[in-house]
């Protein structure tokens, strides 16, 4: 899969040094994480419960996003922006509008990645992507999350209206080491991710709307005629069908 789509689907590149509280302090989130480990994180069971409450209170979510990717040397290697929508359970739409065009749609059963420039669609089973896809975390239920991830709370004593959760995969072989999800006033404000190659990604959200009625049609995808289809499902879809 193309490197451009790492955050939404399998190739998540992670935790940018641009953090959610001080954009000029590139290491503050990682430092906060290390300090939190020294002090002792809150009990995981409590963190799982609180994280689950925050996620499950979001029936729908939509926002503009800006994504920045840095390599292992801290150099920014990619920037993109667009629109992101969620309809729980298990539906999301990630539409990149700048600096390239790309559309990713999860319809509850499959994840479609459409690259207009390449005239190509990739189809994957959604159920197999949870452990490797940060965006799917927002659409999943608490039980599935607890089975796939260790969840802890990072102390933000100076941010009473904010909560930062660290999720680390329980199984080996994942493409990222950790995912941080920042909530501000019970709204998802930023995703911070660190992958196994040392790359870092930040996705910041703005113009956030929660629990508004959304058009369900935006969470379905019809494969355009004439495009190449890379179908990794056990039972391939027919071209042009959902």
Automatic annotation (TrEMBL):
Chief subcellular location: periplasm
Annotated HAMAP family: LolA
GO cellular component, one term: outer membrane-bounded periplasmic space
Annotated GO biological process: lipoprotein localization to outer membrane; lipoprotein transport
SUPFAM superfamilies named among the record's database cross-references: Prokaryotic lipoproteins and lipoprotein localization factors
UniProt entry tagged with the keyword Transport: yes
Alphabetically ordered keywords of this record: Chaperone, Lipoprotein, Periplasm, Protein transport, Signal, Transport
Protein name: Outer-membrane lipoprotein carrier protein
Extent of the signal sequence: 1-22
Assembly notes: Monomer.
Family: Belongs to the LolA family.
Function: Participates in the translocation of lipoproteins from the inner membrane to the outer membrane. Only forms a complex with a lipoprotein if the residue after the N-terminal Cys is not an aspartate (The Asp acts as a targeting signal to indicate that the lipoprotein should stay in the inner membrane).
Pfam families reported for this sequence: LolA
Superkingdom of the organism of origin: Bacteria
Cited InterPro entries: LolA/LolB/LppX, OM_lipoprot_carrier_LolA-like, OM_lipoprot_carrier_LolA_Pbac
Protein localization: Periplasm
